[in-house]
Amino acid sequence: MIIINSKSIIKIFKYAIGAILSVIILAVVLGGLLFAFYAITAPSLSEDKLRAVNSSLVFDSQGNQIADLGAEQRESVTADSIPVNLVNAITSIEDRRFFEHRGIDIFRILGSAVHNLTSNTTQGGSTLDQQLIKLAYFSTDEKDQTIKRKAQEAWLSLQMERKYTKQEILTFYINKVYMGNGYYGMRTAAKNYYGKDLPELSIAQLALLAGIPQAPSQYDPYTNAEAAKGRRDTVLAQMYNYGRISEKDYQEAVATPVEDGLQALQKKISYEKYLDNYLKQVIQEIQDKTGKDIFTSGLKVYTNVNADLQRYLWDVYNTYDYIAYPDDQMQVASTIMDVTNGQVIAQLGARNQDESISFGTNQAVLTDRDWASTMKPITDYAPALDTGAYTSTAQATNDSVYFWPGTDIQVYNWDRQYYGWMTIQTALMQSRNIPAIRALEAAGLDQALKFLNGLGIDYPELLYSNAISSNTSVADQKYGASSEKMAAAYAAFANGGTYYKPQYVNKIEFNDGSVKTYKPEGNRAMKETTAYMMTDMLKTVLSYGTGTEAAIGYMPQAGKTGTSNYSDEELDIIAAETGLYTQNVGTIAPDSNFVGYTSQYSMAVWTGYKNRLTPLYGNGLKIAAQVYRTAMSYLTGGYSDDWEMPAGMYRSGGMLYLDGYNSNNKNYYTPPKASRSNHSQPTTSSSEAKSSSSQEKTSSSDNKVSASASSSALESSTETSISSKETTETPASSAKLDTDEETTDFDPIYSSTPATGTGEAVNSISGNTSVIDSD
User: Fold this and answer.
1) Of the candidates 310, 294, 296, 281, the residue with the CA atom closest to the CA atom of residue 61
2) Is residue 764, in this structure, part of any structural domain at all?
3) Does 206 share its domain with 88?
4) Are 169 and 232 contained in the same domain?
């Protein structure tokens, strides 16, 4: 039996205590050494940092300053103008022992540690000093809150307390904090939220201002009034608990609506209004690329904007000097891009924008409107050519009775007519729907979606209705099309097949003197031969087809029109509300678009109304092409180089063929020998040439066929007389459709009145006679 006497216990206890003390002392020493090391490497305390506005300068493509972002969003307050109730509100909610500690509050740190260990919620231990140092020197991102940063914050806080008075430190903080909606400093917020200076505000209003810096977006009284009231009332409760306001003041303040005294936001801006939409994208790109807040980071940002062109575009939108808009409410959104590198040189998202709103809605990048037949080149024909399903612009296609694959729902052209066999060049020029859908079938949904992805356009699933429509209803910028996306996609046709991601910023100089230059982000999206064939076909749209309104003399350019349509139910609503009927005004549409390009620039234009049920009709359907023509004429001066044919193909009879494919191949369409055409397009009869000015019609976005549907392969054009329905139908179970409506697609007339008479052409494959569209 082991006997331990009292002396042994005391001895063991002494050893244990000594060991514990040794560990504590060692930890303190090591911690002190580590703190000293971090302190040595900390930035130098600077009043310029504590006071700095940190606005960013923005420059155009020529290096001229066009904006000073941040400088006009802050109005500093002097120490003697700060209301006592604001001081009480801030210290009550953020740092109640502010006037007692010397930069670090040990009691608060220990209290926060205990709270965080015993509660499911977390509580910060930073003093107002530390928060100010963080705002002035360090990132506020949670992932950047390292031991090193916390040590340096503490060290600089201690230094600041020795150098400045409590009143000065509190003034720095009040002028530094972000208050939401682009405002920095509590005086700025007071003047813009309430139209008053700080001393004129009530206790309830001051309490709201004191509570906002913790989460400016979350506690925004304009967009989240309930959360803002909750935060304000928490501040008031703390003020009351610490005896800084009376019970009467507390009760009156919490009973006050949080919206009390708020005025409409009127931001002061430090740039010309015509730059607003472009700068909004610059701000977003800066955030995406650097994580920096342009309003506080003191950056020099060099953009790609052509300021003269941007101003000119603004004038085109907002005056009647260039375009005869039907009214002031009609909207336009467009993007102009340098096709050689993806640089966005101009962008404007609306007409008659509210001058009091900064960085408002930019329709030019939103995807909630339909780009209609402008999708046909990138969704249908280019994928068919690039995959080898089609090998020539003379490829034969049948504009005949057609049903969505796997259904008994018929698809129509704008005129509900079918004109039989024609080349894909003629089909695209006239914007026929059935040939476009056949091209998508030939390429395959999976291959077409992959092709679109390579052009920066995505869908959750590709639908057969996407052959003739962008088919989207949300503006999240992820799926579907926008003027930005369409300008970038068509730019790949213009430059020989390379897709460049749209780029607004080319260089950033940071406030530490470092510089970051951004090069174009490009990838091969299609073969050169595909791009050239598409350009060759799209030239005819402006020469003889639906886009003659956009033509600029004899300048080489290419493009495509697109006009969406209403469902029958929507037409009934419009007729009831406006008295407009298609029978008396012709085509009625929610969206009209034009996407065009030269060898140097691409431009995509959307037109419509904010309320989709306010229709375009008559001259309003021509505005998109007119805006394109006006802007592109200004930009190019009416001159642009033509494209050069790449290797791997040849021209025969005006049509393009890949090497190795005979122009006499039976898969290619042969026009009748007795052609009356006076044009240089040998594959179109005179009736076809006239039809180039006919109307198109785009599909309703309601008619969707699932991308998961297994479609039957498009029958070869070598097949003889077989009905279109027999050629394309698959069992109904293999395809989904979310509507039972018939589908049509249309584009408005951009050129002459349709001629009468018909032209006939003999299908060189089967010998069957079919009527060719003679409009």
Assistant:
1) 310
2) no
3) yes
4) yes
- 373 catalytically annotated: yes
- The yes-or-no answer on residue 726 being catalytic is no
**Token pair for residue 277?**
């939409």
| pLDDT at residue 603 tops 50 | yes
8 A C-beta contact, residue 637 and residue 595: no
Among candidate residues 75, 94, 509, 696, the one labeled active-site is 94
- Note whether 349 and 333 are within 8 A (CB): yes
Q: pTM of the full predicted structure?
A: 0.64
Q: Which tens digit of pLDDT belongs to each residue from 617-632? A: 999 999 999 999 999 9
Phi and psi for 426 in degrees, rounded to 5?
A: -65, -40
Angle CA 429–434–438, to nearest 5? 100
Angle between helices 128-137 and 147-163 (to 10 degrees): 110
The residue among 100 and 761 whose pLDDT is bigger is 100
CA distance 253 to 255: 5
Task: Assess whether 367 and 479 both reside in one domain.
Answer: yes
Last residue of a domain, one of 607, 638, 658: 658
Catalytic residue among 358, 373, 482, 640: 373
Whether 329 and 350 have beta carbons less than 8 Å apart is answered as no
Length of the chain: 775
Average pLDDT over residues 303-326: 97
Give yes or no: residues 498 and 359 share one domain: yes
Q: What kind and span of H or E run contains 136?
A: helix 128-137
Determine the structural domain holding residue 129 and report its residue range.
Answer: 72-255
The pLDDT, as a whole number, for residue 717 is: 29
